[in-house]
Amino acid sequence: MFFKFIFLAILFFNGLAVALDFKSEKKPINVEIVPKNGIFKSGDKLFFGIRFELKDGWKTYWKNPGDAGESLRIKWEDESNKTQVKIYFPFPERFLDNDLTTIGYDKTVIFPVQIVPENLEKINETLVLDYLICREVCIPYTETLNTNFDFKNILSSKEFSKFLKSVPKESNNDFKLKIKNSKKDYVFVEFEEKKGRQYDFFAFLEQANTKIVNEEGKSSFKIQIDEEISKITSPLLISITDGEKYEEVSLFLNNNKENNILFYLFLAFIGGFILNFMPCVLPVLSLKLYYFSSASNKNSTQIRNDCISIIFGIITSFIILAASILILKSLGQTVGWGFQFQNKYFLFFITTLILVFSLNLLGFFEIILPHSFQNKVAVYSTANNRFGHFLSGVFATLLATPCSAPFLGTAVGFSMLASNSLIFVIFLSVSVGFALPYLIFLIFPQIVSFLPKPGKWMLTFKYFLGILLFISSIWLMSLAGINNLIIFLTSLLIVSISFFKSKNFFNRIFLLSFLIFMFFFYIKDNKNFNNQTVWYDFDKQFLSESINSGKVVLVDVTADWCVTCKLNKFTTLDSKRLTNYIKKNNIVTIRGDWTKKDNKILEYIKEFGRYGIPVNTIYGPNNKNGILLPEILTNDIVIRELNRVAINEDKSE
């Protein structure tokens, strides 16, 4: 802060001396929007560029300007324009002026700006730019530029591509940075050095100013921070290059277990095990218990072989998930836990699979398929029993991904910021935890003898499991955008056929209960409730305004495919107790819908080290940086944290 004071003093006195001379000179910078009538595209992202052409000796600044300066800021002149834009900063240079070290650009630079058009074909709006340029004197500018973006006219530019390529990518694959140690207001960072390479690096922290004050050695450096590290919640961003590759690495300062990989492996293992008891996985787990109950006539070797097949299916599918994430990361995409449920083709596939599975358990195929075909399927499934168990492991994993469990979000979030190899290791640890029930049967197959013996009860239980899976398929149909009336009528037809076909009293009770459930589900979905909390759509600017105005804010990031999110809504967020508390204490409630891919929501949850949902945060006068709540919520937890962030006064329920 002292350096900035000196800088402003120099700026003031120099400004008095050169002001009159400067008026007679031409503007020392030319600013333009590129391209003129089109748009650039990289991967699936759309970009335009803000091109600065500076005269000799003039410079502008990076997002961390160093000892002095201000970085570029942009906004729409029409504040009602909700089109999202995000500036990317190319890798900068370091300048030394009057013993002040500044970070920025000279001569020519293009700032790539990502734009999310929201179903528009063209945009003709005015963009407002705020920036600072310096030589002996610094001149702040506020400039308006007209834009003309045609999103159907995809253009290319070697100059733009050069600057976009120099934007550090969010990764830690090549340099493998990690925190060596930290004190009250500084941190030592080390990285893997390769012989013959020259490295350069810069630091940025949203909540404080940072400065690289010295290099301990060729493979480590010290970063000074003008705020106590214990008060910082945002990640420290390190931009690093060896002249060929550019990376931006996120390091969390207050995580004293940052380097303890075993700690995160343990969290991943525990999170994977707890995942077995989440609502989305219980039907599959119940099916496996059903199988083991019917396997009492099998010997230990057969049971072990079946368990190995299931475990192999689980581990293989988690490895495929990790590989998919790495492929998408290499293509410049950032994804989170459950990302595949944002893909309509995957939704169609998994919906069809679960529907067929449930209809089979309900005996539906016994009605519509010839006996000769059923016999052939039975012979094939018996001959390929191991493959069937392998697929059931894969099936369980697919159903598990829309759920999050305690500890799982922390472990997966850590892996997304780590190296490629560590992503595989973390996902492998999750898979082992998820497969733990089957590992127990593998080691102790005699446990089967303690399960209920096979009998007529299994037919009823099988029917019950079929209904559970059918409910899952209905939920997936709604995610796929199928009209609720069509879902209701289709369900009514299937259940009616099963009802008249079944002679079992309990089966009919289950089916009648299901019909009643479906009726209330349909009525509830088409009824407006006046007593519920009013949730504002997620908007980062509205969130910032609410926080800065001293309000208490509750943010809920959710998705229709997130079962844990639904559970939190049912037990807590939509409960009468919390709803009354929110209304009585004028809490601002904001909800981000991540059902479909939304980069601005992903960027928000990444601020808290999360790459999956649910994510629930609370802000208030006593904590404007935000408190991250656990994955599983209760009324007591939410109300306690809301009281903590509020001004010290009695908050009543």
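Second entry:
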Amino acid sequence: MLWSQEFYILFYDLLENKQNEISTVKTITKINGMKIVWFIQMSMCILFIFSGSEKIFANRNILEGPQDSQVQYPDSKLFQDLVRVDDKSLDIAMISLLIAKEENPEIKINDYLECIDWYVKMIESRISDKNEPKSVIEIINDFLFNGLGFIYVKTGNLEDLYLNDVIDKRKGNCVGMSILYLAIAERLQLPLFGVNVPGHIFIRYDDGETKINIETGHEGMSLSDSFYVTHSIERFDKGSVENGCYLRNLTKKEVISNVFLNRSKIRREGGAFREALSDCNKAILLKPEEPEAYCNKGVIYERTGMISKAIENYGKAISLNRKYASAYYNRGSVFGAEGIISRAIEDLNKAISINPEVALSYYNRAIAFKKIGQIEKAIQDYDKAIDIDPDFAQAYCNRGVAFAETGKFDNAIDDLDMAIRLDPNLGDAYFARAIFFTDMRKFKKAIEDFGKCIGLSPDKTFAYYLRGKSYKEIGETGKAIQDFNKAITIRPSYAGLYVDRGILLFQTGMFDEAIIDFDKSLELFPENPIAFRYRGKSFEKKGQLEKAIEDFESFLRIIPDSPDADIIRNEIRELTKL
């Protein structure tokens, strides 16, 4: 077999460095005679190890995009004043423009206030005392959407959030358009309010007798509360409505909380986590019953490595909305990355039961199942992820790996080929396919795929290592040593790499250099039997027989039941006679 005992030692060393569970190195006695699937299983394990948790539980955060978004500053006097001011005396247009001015001091607030006042005058000129609320709303809608040509956009850009940009460009997301609408209504003294549902805000006319919902995303169309319940991007339960999270009239400050939450998401995605967290805290201070704010806060904490706080905030989001699928997904993915697999599966089950149409939920649950050895269940979940998203290249790649572990090699190679067709830049797929080529002894094809993997991921240690092994098999020793050198440069703490390079140096007659590598391997991993064996052979070649015998005896002490134990004992006896 191509991948012999020293290969196992490298795996053991790599897994130990990653704190993964694996049986003691004495399992090496089981290697001889093992079927090739063993190599594939172990190789696929390394594939995921080198990907890291961010890739293992891919795209963990599926928090919906900035509300149809985010930025942040240190706590300012403006925000302190906003908290203190009475809600009824708050001018929603003024405060919105002041928030924008913090970021863009060039904004001339009075110009925009005058523009809004002009809008109001134009609308007032079209309204008569006989107009019913529905007619008044239709007049406002016609003026804004038909007369001025305002359009709604589903983006998370600041320019579609800030009121000045909405006015300048006559387009905005749900928050930007809603604030414009409310600013006009405030000056017309109309009883209009913002209303939140998950990831969205709309407007409601409510004079105590008549209620009319106004959807700025559809040119002011009136949609029922039940429509929002059915079509919300996140499902929400009755309790979240009763607790005031959704479908109630918001205060002006609560409307402004949407600006801070959206800006927090924008800043989060831009990597400005400190500022993002500050904005998120502001949003929560203004509207404490906002599940989305806690979920966003969880994402921020997760991305900054504060895992316990991330889990805590995902939990808070779930406590406010028991049907918050994204929060279950995010928390489950964190549990998975932390190795708490039972909790991961539990949360992902819940996410899937709430929203069964999200490919990532099945994908991450498949990874969780695979981690606990339930390969068939993993394959079933990959199947579902691919059914939902037929272009999900990574799912094909992972399913191919799972097929390999169950001995379905034709299916495995088909999936890896498909993964590469869908995403020619998917390094994991080239890596896995290269391993198949090595098992089929198609070393040149394997070298080609390892090369593509390295081109996409230049620091992927194991790709260099395996390509080096393939070069060795076709007799290109120099290139093999170069690849081992590169692998060691990237991961100088992996003992097994020194063993393999040492063996190659030994086989080319470079005994002194080989001994240096075996010394280094034993420094890193003092109980490495293969290093003792080959260092002993190197000493034997140099005529240092006592050192050779000592190393052979160390090999037998560590793995006395090795298939090669009798050979080593015979060597010791022969050396002792000399």
